[in-house]
Amino acid sequence: APTSSVSRPPRALRKVFALDDFEAAARRHLPRPVFGYMCSYAETGAAFDANRDAYADYGFMPQVMVDVSKRSTQTELFGETYAAPFGFAPVGLTALSTYRGDLVLARAALESRLPMIMSGSSLIPLEEVAALHPGAWFQAYLPGDRGAIELLIDRVARTAFKTLVITVDTPVPPNSENTARMGFSAPLRPSIGLAWQGMTHPRWLLGTFLRTLARHGMPHFENNYATRGAPILSPSVLRDFSERGHLAWDDLRTIRKQWRGRLIVKGILRADDARMARDCGADGIIVSNHGGRQLDGAIAPLRALPAVVAACPDIPVMIDSGVRRGTDVLKALALGAKLAFVGRPFGYAAAVGGVPGVQHGVKLLTAEVSRNMAMLGVNSVTELQADRHLVRMPGR
Ligand code: FNR
């Protein structure tokens, strides 16, 4: 029988030819409030749009007639070898859109040999994800008081997780107007409209929500100390967690003293902040505007990247926000990033297709990275990172 190395994707994924195609599939599959939470951005969407515009503004200067037949997308970072120079950014509440969502992403990351950051705003206890995939990274939002910070770090330290990511771009909760327009609130409030959304999305209702209820009970916020213990579906209102607003660099120094593992700071857009994070003991930085979900009008991370890389040449600088294509990953790498994280698309992929869905997305993005490395005339990720002449502005 003829054999083919290309496996056919599951039915739901036949029309997914690129990461962006997952969005339309997720929009159909998910109730409006759940999809609304995932796709949402802050206020006017200026920061969200800027993320994509920035990638379009850089153009490639490819080198031709280079033997690229032995090229590899393999990537070394923090002593680990990953299959490609991209990973899964932390996405909150994934167990609302995908049955046991964080475990789905962790399994896909483990099998694909890619870095994955588990969200602190998850509905699955961090211990379960650590047991499945000890190499995953855990992201925390800092609780409001020092005692709670200590408890959180202690809890993470008791697991097999070795890498802690602290997200610093959320001193107060973001404006929720766009998610509210889509009918989302945290927690979700029971209503006739919500029940209707569930009934008109039966695959999600049966396969995700009722399945979770039947096997594990009502999902609760599990790892975020500000919201811990709150059920995802409840008429009550979550305790406001704006008390985080007084956190400062000293808190990062305190964490550094307590946490023996690797410490990454996510959500930096300025060279001086990057230097400060490094001086407080950060082992790596993720340049990010949270996918345009926090400060509307925040600069696109790609534009901030070169200054941050120049300010911190001695630690890995990574990036996220708006990465959708292999060419985006390659542009970020050519501007000095060690790795590019992807948020929404893999969240949608998990919702639509579970582990095979995420793996399908990984396969598409890896193929784009590899193909475009060939077009650029580079054989390895390190070669790409060493050659800043491969990209320039303007790209159009
Ligand atoms: C996020 N993001 C995020 N970041 C974080 O540090 N902790 C979190 O809990 C979450 N939660 C979250 C939920 C959802 C639904 C989205 C879409 C995003 C931000 C995320 O890690 C990343 O910075 C952006 O998603 C990157 O932008 P793109 O790839 O979505 O454009």
Automatic annotation (TrEMBL):
FMN binds at residues 90-92, 119, 139, 167, 266, 288, 320-324, 343-344. The active site is at H290 (proton acceptor). CDD domains: alpha_hydroxyacid_oxid_FMN. It holds the Pfam family FMN_dh. Keywords: Flavoprotein, FMN, Oxidoreductase. It comes from the Bacteria. Glyoxylate binds at Y37, Y141, H290, R293. Residues 11-394 form the FMN hydroxy acid dehydrogenase domain. Its cofactor is FMN. It is an enzyme of class 1 (oxidoreductase). The keyword Nucleotide-binding does not apply. The keyword NAD does not apply. GO terms for molecular function: FMN binding; L-lactate dehydrogenase (cytochrome) activity. Its EC number is 1.1.2.3. PANTHER family: 2-HYDROXYACID OXIDASE 1, S -2-HYDROXY-ACID OXIDASE-RELATED. Belongs to the FMN-dependent alpha-hydroxy acid dehydrogenase family. This is L-lactate dehydrogenase (Cytochrome).
